[in-house]
Amino acid sequence: MGVMENTSAVVVAGGDGTLAEVLTGLLRRADHEEAASRLPLGVLPLGKTNCATSAIWGFRGNPEPRHLAEAAMAVIRDIKRPLDVMEITPLQGGEEGVPPKPVFAASKVEWGAYRDARERNDVYWYWSVLKKYMTYVFSSYKDISWDCSADIEYSTPCSGCSRCRGTVKEEHKVEETPKPPQRWWMAYLPRTKPVSTPKEEKKIDYSSIINEECGVVKKTTVSDISDLSVVTRNTPESLDIPNYALALKTGPTNVGSFAFIQEGWSREWNKSNSYDAESIIGEITLTPTGNTKTNRR
C-alpha cells in the first residue's frame, strides 16, 4: 500500500477486534518485520471489549474518560512499549487448494458457551442495561457451543536456547521514548503517567543454552468443558505470563443452566473470568472433536 510508505504511525480507534484486524493487515505484509518496527501502533480504547488496552492502562470493563485521555496523550507524546502478539493459523483453508492465512491477536482467543452468550446480548436490546445479564438466562437453554471437546498438542514455553534460536542474537536497541520539546500550550495539558520504557536488550549467546524440553510436543484432551481460552499477558488477569508464553485456560465440565447463569453474571459484574484449570504453554494445536452444537433443555 503506497499510503503506508509515508506513514509514521498507525492509530487504532476501537477494541480488541479492530486491533486484531490492524495487526493482521500489518503482519501479513511481505515486509512485516520492517513494518512492525517502523510503524508504532497507538490504541484508543473505544471498542466493546478492550482487553489489550485495559492491561496497559489498568482498568476493568469500560474505560473512563481519563483512560481515553491518557491513551491519546501517549500517542501525542510518542510513548512506546512492546506488545506481544499471538498468531492463529486455521488447520484448513477456506477454499480448496488455498493455504490458510494466519490472523493475529494481541489479547486472547475464546471458544465456548460464555463467549457465544456474550456475543448475542445485542439481540436482547429491549432489556436495556439488563441485556448483558439476560443473555445468559436465554442462552442457558438455547443451541450454543457447550461441548468444547478437543485434542490438544502443545509445547512447553522456552525463553530461548540453542535449539530454537541457535545463533547469537544481535544486539537490539529499543528506541527510548524521547523527551518532548516544551511548547507554551503543553503547560495546559494534563501530565500522562508514562508507560515504562523497555530497557535495552543485551546480546545473548543462545548457542550455549541447553533446554531439552524445547520443541517437545505433548498431547492431551479436553471433554465436555464449557469454555476454553488461549491468552497472552495482554489481559488484566494474566499479566504475570512470560512474554514468550501463552496460557491455556479451561472452564468447568457439564455445566448446568443455573451454574451457567451464575458464572455469566459473575463475569459481567466482576469483569473477570474464572477457570478450573490453567497451563502455561508455548505453541498449541487445537482440533475440535465434540459436537459443538449440543442442545440442552
Automatic annotation (TrEMBL):
GO terms for biological process: ceramide biosynthetic process; glycerolipid metabolic process; sphingosine biosynthetic process. GO terms for cellular component: mitochondrial inner membrane; mitochondrial intermembrane space. One of its GO terms (molecular function) is acylglycerol kinase activity. Gene3D superfamilies: Probable inorganic polyphosphate/atp-NAD kinase, domain 1 (3.40.50.10330). PANTHER family: ACYLGLYCEROL KINASE, MITOCHONDRIAL, SPHINGOSINE KINASE. This is DAGKc domain-containing protein. Pfam families: DAGK_cat. Transmembrane segments: none annotated. Residues 1-91 form the DAGKc domain. InterPro entries: ATP-NAD_kinase_N, Diacylglycerol_kinase_cat_dom, Lipid_Phosphate_FormReg, NAD/diacylglycerol_kinase_sf. It comes from Penaeus vannamei. SUPFAM superfamilies: NAD kinase/diacylglycerol kinase-like (SSF111331).
